[in-house]
Every structure is written in structure tokens, then in C-alpha cells.
Amino acid sequence: MALVDRDPLMRVLWTDPVTGRNGYLVVHSLVSGLATGGTRMRAGCTLSEVAELARGMARKTAVFDLPVGGAKGGIDCDPKDPDARGVLRRFVQAMRPWLDAHWVTAEDLGVPQHLIDEVFAELGLHQSYHAAIRRAPDPERTLRRVRAGLAAPVPGGLLLGDVVGGYGVAQSCLGVVHARGWAPEATTVAVQGAGTMGGGAAYYLHEAGLRVVALADAAGTLWHPDGLDVPTLLETRDRFGEIDRAQVPPEVRLLPREAVLAADVDVLIPAAVSYAIGGPQVPEVAAKVIIEAANTPVTADAEEMLAARGIPVIPDFVANAGAVAWAWWLLLGRVDADPVRSFQVLREEMLAKIPPLLAAWDTGGRTPRAAALLLAEHRNERNRAAEASGQGLLSIP
């Protein structure tokens, strides 16, 4: 069985002794003794969900040729709950043996990077990349580089660590635009989700001249055929990524939340929740291409139905992998606190990866997912061979 499709190496179920809420850690694979993957928090989070996300992380690290395996953490708790921070702290404490030596985690749905870093610092682990940083010859220097990179300011008043994932999704979209020969200013986009990933993607696509005509958050869909003023709308978001409707211009239409999925656009970017597009939603999809910015936003059966309709799906483990790839480039010293350098490297990587996936679809009828999985497995086989021969894959300066 292919490494990226095998059963996870380990599953851990944790129950919070204070609230009774459950948390999960799934380690799908280890490379160089390490696995990487964020920690999410949402009401209804399940072990099977976390296991599927861990598999996705193994695919991401393989596609981007990172010397690390895949893992994921999840907590069944509403991040708006007053108990949420305490639950997160106790979860991190319980997972400390893995976080200390093997699991590199980071932000995810419901858990911003600054919050998880605060919890790590309180527990004496300094930062959520701790398991990798401690392997560096000079951990303090590596820690400084990581902190400087995450906190580097970028245009728009945000931090590099908060926007790099959305920037990567935007570059995936631009890879599609270039491969299809579309004029950017004539290309229309709908984005489901206005948080870190969706908001970042919408912002950078707007900056690139594309028309973001639909943008949805938990309260509904904002729509304007000439394109939304994305930067201004994003400035009104609260800490949960919801746009202040009192500050929405009157010419912008307020539509139901689900309307974004049926928008008649060139590109649809589901960037909110997993399984947003299932079989029942497929007949409503009008986009020419779907780019998965959330983790598994399109179910397997829906992707098959979309393929039958001639709509390719750029898989999440390519499109939204910019954040994890950049984090490891930062750890490995390929990038630093210079946003220009980070954006350049990520743009080059994404623009190189998307055209071959669409070419496989256009010429051989192979889905972008199938083409990307072949690439992932090839690189996993190479890494296994290197480790078996005693070659070190991980070198953190």
C-alpha cells in the first residue's frame, strides 16, 4: 500500500479531566522521527476527521519534498466557549511527550498561531515548532529566526505568519489562470471563508487584479458582479473572521451563506470547513475550476461527480500547503523574516506545481488529485530509501 494512503501510525484519544471534552492526536507517518500538522478546535471534531487530516498532512509534506511526516491534532470544543483556552492548554500538556520530541504543530481552524504559541510558552516549550527547533545545533538562534519570520509585518497591517497560507492559495489560483490563459482582470472568483486562509486568498487575488465577486463568512455571502473591495471588507472582521455587516456598502448584495458555492465564476475556493461540497451540492456548482483551500472541503463522491461534469479540483494537499511548506522552509533556513523572499519562493513553487496537474487532466483525463498523489508517492519512496541507507534527511541550521 502506498505510504500516503496507509493507516495511521498512531491514534490517541484524550478526555479533558475538567470539562469532559475530547481531544485527538493522529500521527500518520514519521520521517526523520518527526511529524507535522496543526491543532484545530471545533464543536463536533472527531477522531476520523483528524485521521483524514493527518493523511492530508503526509501528502502535503511529500508533495513539497519536506523531510517530515504528517500528523494532526483536534479538540471537540467550540473555540468561542469560555473554557476553550483551558481545554487547549490541558490538551497541549497531555500531548507534551509528543510535542517535545516528535510532533511539530501550529495554528488551524479555531486555534490562531499566537494562541497556541502563548500556551506553549506557558508550559516552557517556547513555541509550537519546539520538537524541530530543539534539534538545531543552536536552538536559540533557530527560535529567533522562526519568531522573526512569523511576526514579520506585511502590507495590509498583518503578519507574515498569518497570511502566508492564503498567499499560497492565491498563487495556486494564479497558476490555474496562467495555465488556462485567462486574463487576470477578466477572471472571477468566489471564496467561501473570510478567515486566515480564505481572507488571505481573497486579499492577494484582489491585489493581483482578479475580481472576487463573492465572499462568504458564517453570516452569509457578500456579492457584487464587478468585484468586492476585499481589503476594506477584511478590515471590519472580528477575531472569528466574520465581516461587520454594518460596514458593508449598500450596493453589495447580502445572500445566504450557501450561495457562494453556486456562484457563476471561473474559480471557486472553498476555504471554510471540511466537506462543504458533497453530492447534493454538485449540481449547483457553476465554477470552471475548484481550488481546495480548506482541508477536504470536497467529498470523494462529489469530486467524482464534478470530474464527470468536466470540473477539475485542485486538491488541498497542494493548494493549501503553502503554510506548512513555508514553516519548514523557515525552520530549514530557506527563507527568513524577509516577506519578499518568502513570497517569491512560495510563488515559484506554486506556479510550478499547478500546470502539470491541469495538463494531466487535459491530456490524459487524470484528475489533479491522482496526478499529485503519484508525485507524493514517488517522493515518499525516495525518502524511505534515503532513510534506509542511513542518509539524514533533516538538517536545521
Summarize the model shown.
Helices cover 43% and strands 15% of the residues. It is of the alpha/beta class. Strands 12-11-10-9-13-14-15 form a 7-stranded mixed β-sheet.
Strand-helix topology:
Layout: E1 10-15, E2 22-27, E3 35-36, E4 39-42, H1 47-63, E5 69-76, H2 84-94, H3 96-101, E6 103-104, H4 113-122, H5 130-133, H6 139-150, E7 153-154, E8 158-159, H7 160-180, E9 188-192, H8 196-207, E10 211-217, E11 220-223, H9 230-234, E12 253-255, E13 267-270, E14 289-291, H10 300-308, E15 313-314, H11 316-319, H12 322-332, H13 339-364, H14 368-388
Parallel strand pairs: 3-5, 3-6, 4-5, 9-10, 9-13, 13-14, 14-15
Antiparallel strand pairs: 1-2, 2-5, 7-8, 10-11, 11-12
Please characterize this protein's 3D structure:
The protein is α/β, with parallel strands linked by helices and 397 residues long. It folds into 2 domains: 9-55 and 70-135, Leucine Dehydrogenase, chain A, domain 1 (Rossmann fold, 3-Layer(aba) Sandwich), CATH 3.40.50.10860; 158-379, Rossmann fold (3-Layer(aba) Sandwich), CATH 3.40.50.720. The protein has 14 helices and 15 strands. The chain has helices spanning 47-63, 84-94, 96-101, 113-122, 130-133, 139-150, 160-180, 196-207, 230-234, 300-308, 316-319, 322-332, 339-364, 368-388; strands spanning 10-15, 22-27, 35-36, 39-42, 69-76, 103-104, 153-154, 158-159, 188-192, 211-217, 220-223, 253-255, 267-270, 289-291, 313-314. A 7-stranded mixed β-sheet has the order 12-11-10-9-13-14-15. Strands 1, 2, 3, 4, 5 and 6 form a 6-stranded mixed β-sheet that branches. Helix 1 links the parallel strand 4 (39-42) and strand 5 (69-76). Helix 1 crosses helix 14, helix 2 crosses helix 4 and helix 7 runs parallel beside helix 13. The two termini are 34 Å apart. The mean pLDDT is 93.
